[in-house]
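Example 4.3 (complexes with small molecules)
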Amino acid sequence: MYIIFEGIDGAGKSTQIEIIKKWLEDNGLEVETLVEPTDSEIGVLIRKILKRPDAATDRMQKVLGLLFAADRMLIMDKLEDDKKIFLSDRSFISSLAYQEPQDWIGSLNKYVKKPDLVLLLDVDIKNSALRFSGEDEFENKEFLTKVRDNYLDIIKEFNHEIINANNGINKVSSDVKKAIASKVGLCRDCIE
Ligand code: TMP
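Answer. The structure with thymidine-5'-phosphate bound is encoded below.
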């Protein structure tokens, strides 16, 4: 079972993954969490490049598209373990939403495992990481608006749920649990 958490920076993906991991484990299920970029050499390089002043240029976004795809290939074997539930913080869907053009990104990620469920933690731009960043607010807002629109479009192709991540942590985690429960054989109506 491969469950992907997506959403713009600041949507609360990592917090929710932690909560959901504990809930699934408390219910006797075996869980492994994944984060993209990973901690491989390629993932480390990606994080370095993301900090460069030219990271947002078209050329560097192409470089990042290639590196994200390579970094992702390194974890594909792991996903073959069908006893585990994998909860992933980002995936190829991030590449489709952030990098361009989508058909090229799609072909680079052709051999990547497709998810059983995509959870889009959808947050208003004003509630996103934009609030906390010292970067150019206008430029960033335009970019994040485009990424959010891309997400809403891309996820239509997959089994997905859109979670309103503007709500408090407990309400969001309850919505996420309800979205996942039947997939993993747990009682949906038992969730508060
Ligand atoms: P995060 O650790 O806060 O999720 O940051 C990872 C950054 O990398 C985030 O800004 C989104 C970006 N990213 C892409 O642009 N493409 C990708 O394929 C992935 C996995 C992440």
